[in-house]
TrEMBL record:
The keyword Transferase applies. Residues 418-657 form the Protein kinase domain. Keywords: Kinase, Serine/threonine-protein kinase, Transferase. Transmembrane segments: none annotated. This is Serine/threonine protein kinase. SUPFAM superfamilies: Protein kinase-like (PK-like). The lineage of its organism: Bacteria, Pseudomonadati, Pseudomonadota, Gammaproteobacteria, Alteromonadales.
Amino acid sequence: MARMISFGTPVNDAERWAFSLLADELPEDYILLTNVEIPTKSGQAMEVDALVIGEWGVYVVDVKGYIGRLDAGMHAWSLDGREVDNSLAKANYVARVLAGNVKHKIPVGVYAPWCQGMVFVTGRKGEEIELEKQQGSLSIYTPKQIVEALTTEWGLTAPRKHQVTDTQKELVLETIGQVAIVEKRNNKIQDFTKLKCLFIQSGLEVWQAEYNPGEWTAPWLLKVLIPTQFADSDQSEAHEAQLRSEFLRLQSLSGCCGVPYCAPLIQDGEQLVLPIRMPRGVPLNVLDSKQMTTYQLLEVLRRSVTGLQQIHRRGFTVGGWTSNCIFVSDMGDVEFIDIKDNVSSSDDIKAYAQGFLAIAEQTQQPRIYQWYREAVAGSTTDLDALRSDLSALIDHGVCDTVPEKIEICAGAIIDHHFKLEQFIAAKETSQFWRATHLQGQYQCGVSIYSKVEANWPMLSSIYRTLAKVYHPHIEKVLAFGQLPQSDNLFIARAWEYGESIDEVKEIKLGQPLMWFTQLLTGLQYMHQMDIYHGAICPKNIICNPNKAILVNFGIGLDIAASHYACQYADPTLWEVEGEAERDLYGLVASFIDAMAPESLKGNLCQAGIINALEAFDREWFGEKLYDVCHKVLNFDLSVHAGMNYLEMFDLAENDVI
């Protein structure tokens, strides 16, 4: 991109388009002066469309927006058969005047640079132009050749070709006069000084600038909109609306992490300018993440997700996820400089995960990179869970060494989140603890299970699903995983007060029916999502005076299967029954087992449970409820999709709390 100094305003669209093309395509060491005046000896000035100070010469460029077929000769030109002015003759004359002026300023021992005229025929923005030159050496070019003619020696008409030195370039600028003043004027917008043009197209420019009101400076970006340079007023108004909308977004998001500060819009009659503080650091696409430590990578991820959360909570989305629009500082700060608010929050999270997945995988922390992989697949949008996991890893310093085997005791920290506080109970293959969530400082329950490695894939699937759903009578799963260097797994769940149904000391009238009704609603909800408990027994039903909760999905399958198959149910029937029928059988059998006197249950075989049921008063029990329970215990009831469990057990009229 050439150094462009504008002395005046383009007079037409052809000039505007030509200057934009030359500024974009010419090398950085070229100087492009537009709408500049060349003084003559008489004191009268001649305006030049463009003056290009290049590697091989100084070119006086006359811009013509001719459309059609141009037949150009040494003396006469015609456009589609109509006579038009010979612009090259005028450009060559001005070039000779400029060369004479430069020679008068050149000191002894310094050669004057070659000056020549050139015509740039633009057509309609590079199209709809055909050029026929009667002599191939004439310096008349279309957009296809203009840049090459200005940057290579074949475009020079000098008899001897010499490269232009820096001293010669400065002499040309001195001849023009006040170039530095004009450049400073062009580059000054209030207290902002434009330093480098990063983007230019039609009437939209992006500049790297500095803010220098006094003794100090600060880097900024300036988005500049020049209405007169757009093809039509509709296009200009649309871009102006976009710029104003961006300003309002940034103002609304002021104070959020990841959002750069912006100053008020500047409108001086000729242009509309949005100043945005230059983001600190480097773009994500050039970030050398391989040189960063694991904790630095985790901090980048934590700050990025914090910023995204805050933006979403104010009702906006980022949308602009190209890697060169995301900046990361040395301190791990992350800023998004292209906040478009043009996608849904779920799509925004998916795009965010795609952008940061490589960094997440570099951390080698499974909980972290698995979240990003799931988010890319669209299967999670839980930013809170990710941020909590990142904080736990950073705050507890768990990435320095290989995770050690955890000794299950008071004070042990499970999964970097849960501190075991009080032992509650234990069975042969399980323990239950009251714990504290370290980041949230609230009570929760943690169960530790051993000898379940054979069922790990099935359990993992169940608990990943349970962590995303909610029902008041199904355990609320907070976390699930395998303990390091162990075959044991843990389940962290919301803390629920109560006892297993077979250990409740005092049962009031109406409570069993209330509990049964509540658990039916929860069981139906789970079955609708193809989640089956598979191990319902009295120990997995937790009751308090107000509600019952079904816990331990899939845990204790061996106990449940052996218990029901050998005592509650016929083994052959148990093997062939469907999962929904097994769950209903387990629920009914568990309540009968917990409520019936020992003398009625006998040895707890299927016949014993049915005998215990039959000992209840049918009228007190409820005729339909009694009959359905009887069918369930005999496996005479088939469950099908869409079945309403409450209606099936004649409990639809009961209140479910």
